[in-house]
Amino acid sequence: MVKILTAVCKEIVLLSRDRTGLLVLFLMPALLVVIITLVQVNVMELTGQKKTRILFHDLDGGRLGTLLGEQLRSAHFEIIAADPATTDVTEVEELVNAGRYRLAILISRGSSAALEKKASSLLAAEPDAGNEAAAIPPESVRVYFDPGIMPGFRSGLSSQLHMALAAVAMKMKLAALAETLEEVVVSYGLSPEATPLPLSTLDSRLEQPLLEIDIDPGDEDTPRMAPYNPVQQNVAAWALFGMFFTALPIAGSLLEERKSGIWHRLKSMPVSQLQLFFGKMLAYIGVCFCQFLLIWLIGAYLFPLLDLPAFTVSPRTTATVLTIVAVSLAVCGYGLFLGLACNTYEQAFMIGATSVVAAAAVGGVMVPVYAMPQLMQQLSILSPINWGLNALQELLIRNSPASTVISDFFRLAGFALITLLGAWKLSRSRL
After folding, report:
1. In 3-state terms, what secondary structure has residue 105?
2. Does 385 share its domain with 424?
């Protein structure tokens, strides 16, 4: 045990001298997780998955603006009200064209009165020869779109605006209907209070929903996790990406020891080759744990400072630690295999970097697996990064029991065993 600890100390000393390598191992995944998450959150805003800011310029100040604002807020929009006294129409258009807002809504003066009049006129319109209500031109609401938004996002915004305007128009019609019915009741010499249905609350009664969505609350004993956001995906994904890149310095240190003759001098000491391997593995397992801890701290404490959701985890501590150990063993096994299978550092770097990036791309680090084509989804099962990512997402995000990640755990352990056995076999002939 003392010999193994001595080998671990040797690896730590060598690592501490390679400051550039340590900077790459820790700074690269940290920067990637911050940059990619910020970009994805902005993409969510552009595709309507996040609140969209609307410049709301209400020159009328009547019921139309109040009802439309309520509908838009309930439709997940952030309303920024412009001051009618200090902001003119030209300035609103310039703010949207400059990209400050995705769209702006202008309600002209007298719109509420005109809309209420048209709603009343619609009920009082005489039927024509086709037995249909006389056509009444609709009141318009001016909308300015940012010319730089994507067509799909613009179409989605237009659909939501149409639904909001339809809801406002329906409320206006119901209010006009209540007033008309009350006038009819009074014309027959009856009191509106004597009617079975109170006419003053007719519009509010008809607006009450009869159906609603009942979301399954799940098991009361199982804590519910927060809804999905890019932070939940990226923290685990880029932590694994950085951990697998640790295979490169493992291979590089082994190649350096082979070329310089240090390994042969170490073997001449009273220490076995297996103990040297174990010492190297334990040192880099510690590096992998530090990488994961750094990314977790960034997600939990730095992201809220950047106006991003905080990374939330479930209390599956034991299963999470075992998964990280399995990932670290897989990384060490692959690094040792590269260091023994390749003859030069250039070969190890080219093969190692290419294979890790390919495994990350196929495994769901850059893009979630469910968003990939069917062929890519089938290929993702071959990526060790995908096994680790699936396990961490089940434990940290979905709060699943440890039994759900057993298959991924054994895949990682099997990959580590195969690569370590391959490295051991190569060491018999090359060391």
Report:
1. strand
2. yes
Asked if the model's pLDDT at residue 195 lies above 70, the reply is no
Q: Which residues contact 281 (CB under 8 A, 6 or more apart)?
A: 329, 332, 336
CA distance 182 to 193: 10
Q: What is the pTM of this model?
A: 0.67
Residues 250 and 389 in one domain: yes
Contacts 24+ apart (CB under 8 A), 200-205: 202/174, 202/177, 202/178, 203/171, 203/174, 203/175, 203/177, 203/178
Q: In whole angstroms, give the CA distance from residue 168 to residue 68.
A: 6
Number of compact structural domains in the chain: 2
Do 179 and 248 belong to one domain?
A: no
- Cβ within 8 Å of residue 82, ≥6 positions away: 55, 56, 57, 58, 92, 104
Instruction: Give the chain's largest Cα–Cα span.
Output: 115
What's the pLDDT band for 220 if we cut at 50, 70, 90? very low
pLDDT in tens, 10-21: 777 777 777 777
pLDDT tier for residue 334 given thresholds of 50, 70 and 90:
very high
- 39 and 62, same domain (yes or no): no
Beta bridge partners of 142: 106
Residues 292, 178 within the same domain: no
Taking alpha carbons only, the member of 46, 166, 169 closest to residue 103 is: 46
CA dihedral sign of residues 402, 365, 51, 166: negative
In-domain check, residue 213: no
In degrees, rounded to 5, the angle at the alpha carbon of residue 247 between the alpha carbons of residues 292 and 12 is 70
Question: Range of 28's domain?
Answer: 2-43+226-430
Q: At 77, is the secondary structure helix, strand, or coil?
A: strand
Q: Cβ atoms within 10 A of the Cβ of 197, count?
A: 11
Give the helix/strand (H/E) hosting 112: helix 111-124
Predicted confidence at residue 74, as pLDDT, reads 83
- pLDDT value of residue 413: 93
264 and 397 in a single domain? The answer is yes
Q: Which residues contact 177 (CB under 8 A, 6 or more apart)?
A: 123, 202, 203
Q: Are residue 334 and residue 371 in the same domain, yes or no?
A: yes
pLDDT digits (tens, 9 = 90+) for 27-72: 888 888 888 888 777 666 555 556 778 899 888 888 888 888 888 8
Q: How many Cβ atoms are within 10 Å of 205's Cβ, its own excluded?
A: 12
Instruction: Please report the pLDDT score of residue 218 as a whole number.
Output: 52
